[in-house]
Design brief:
alpha/beta, 5-stranded parallel sheet, 130 residues, disordered C terminus, 5 helices
């Protein structure tokens, strides 16, 4: 699992809580390091901040969707932007879920845990037998 967020407090909260849920977690502080991290250790789920300097969440999401190795990954876009245009931009970019900040930690943990389970059970599309 990969968490990409420029806010160190959110990274720490998610890291500690997701690891407590038994998930292996990598964190990245910006979009570029998030894209580098997914090359080193492909995640099964990505939690991605929508607003970051340099590469924002939709740009990172676009890069993930354009790469056949990561196109299938479930991505949760986490953003303080709640206006309809931004939410739709997240969906159009390929987000599987759009969660607004402030978020309910237990709800986000449940969502991510379920996505991680589903992702590991299904594997990448090329290895599915259905």
């Amino acid at each position: 699992m990969l968490v990409v967020d420029d806010d160190p407090a959110i990274r720490l909260i998610l890291l500690v809580n997701l690891e407590a849920e038994g998930l292996a977690v990598e964190v990245a502080e910006d979009g570029r390091s998030g894209l580098e991290s997914r090359r080193r250790r492909p995640p099964d789920v990505v939690v991605l901040d929508g607003m970051m300097p340099d590469l924002d969440g939709t740009e990172v999401l676009g890069a993930l969707r354009a790469d056949p190795a990561t196109a299938h990954l479930p991505v949760v876009l986490l953003s303080a932007r709640t206006d309809d245009e931004q939410v739709w931009a997240g969906w159009r970019a390929g987000a599987d879920y759009y969660v607004t900040k402030p978020f309910v930690l237990d709800d986000l943990l449940t969502l991510v845990h379920r996505l991680a389970y589903e992702s590991s059970a299904a594997g990448p599309p090329s290895s599915r037998t259905d």
